[in-house]
């Protein structure tokens, strides 16, 4: 299966156009959160992606809530937040929001590590884990050099051993990759990222 994945669109019309064009070659499209800005413009952001005809799986970032995203997506999209799905035998689990709690204003949709752990415990098996936030210690470094990833997400990866973890959130680490055991972790960013995966 040919997967196109991205994160942190943040209402960028140019990036949306590139993603729509690239999606013509995709069997599945994955969006790892932050489609809009500060809980504003979500319907506009999703409209920019209307040209994507492949099945799409998305998680909410900290810029939109789970409910807001569910209300904004089209019929071809599946929203995962503390839930899983299966696509052609590929087991996919998603967790959105900022983890741990961000220093941003009260517009930000965040989870504590304990809240994230509870939601991740619902997952018993996954080939791909989609999280808006990166795991602690991989692709999670800010421009100030701080590692701000999630310990709960890292623990879930160590427990589940998925083939692939797709995340975003930390803009300074866009494009960075790393390994946790045999699991590849990729901080996507808003440009097209390609993966091959199968059950």
UniProtKB/TrEMBL annotation:
Which InterPro entries does the annotation name?
Calcineurin-like_PHP_lpxH, Metallo-depent_PP-like, UPF0046_metallophosphoest
State any single GO MF term.
Answer: hydrolase activity
Any single Pfam family the record assigns to this protein: Metallophos_2
Q: Where is the Calcineurin-like phosphoesterase domain?
A: 1-191
What's the domain of life for this entry? Bacteria
Return the similarity comment: Belongs to the metallophosphoesterase superfamily. YfcE family.
What is the name listed in the Swiss-Prot or TrEMBL entry for this protein?
Answer: Predicted phosphoesterase
